[in-house]
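S1.2 Input.
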Amino acid sequence: MESFADRLAVVTGGGSGMGRELVVQLAAEGCSVATCDVNADSVAETARLAETAMPAGTRVTTHVCDVSDEDQVLAFRDEVVAQHETDHVNLVFNNAGIGGGGSFLTADRAEWDRTFGVCWWGVYYCSRAFVPLLVTSDDGYLVNTSSVNGFWAMLAPGIPHTAYSSAKFAVKGFSEALLEDFRINAPHVKVAVVMPGHIGTDIVINSIAVHRGGSEIEAMRPFGDAFRDSAPLSGADAATIILDGVRAGKWRILVGDDAEAIDGAVRADPEGIYRAGAPTILSARPT
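S1.3 Output.
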């Protein structure tokens, strides 16, 4: 898909981070966008930012949707069809994600299930809802965000990271499995899996807000700000890399030097990376 002009994109998790930047950059190129988030104020701000630079005739609509709830996803799809007066979409970016549920053994099950629900079931439900609309188009692209934790299921030695990693491995496997499915049954539709490293987003604070909220948000804010501000790539940088990959027709989009390094390390020594006492290959954190 060499040009996004006059296309229609769906972006989940558009209230901040990479999702917000995808919306802004797509709209600036004349691509209309329907974007959702659980936070109505945040996604409204995304639309305001996008509208400052988008050409005439481009539309950005905002929707409140918890992607882990299939009924809400279907309602979101119906809103997109009605508000954009369309029978198809051209691009779907399954970007929404949260952290949490580090240990399968000791973490609160509700937090574990919530993290897995957003990061995996959100991708599945949105794909079930929107892929038929991609198939109806003359040129479609499904773009699923996994993570470096879809290569390596740890934050670092000594730190379990089970819910997020399990979900991101599922996203990666699902996306790769769709390559042949689309090739046979919908050859005009492409799929890409995005593997970001440490990207400067507010995922830490957003995840705390989803799981616990209240005073814990302020308690974690210094760590969340440090995570965002110390990242080697910003959300805008990541969005540019993703969109460049889509333009080039890539099915595998690594985002960041750390993602490239981790991919190489896992391929070189898939058993050794989990050996007790092994050096950390992941100096960054997931997006």
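S1.4 Remarks. The longest strand covers residues 189-196.
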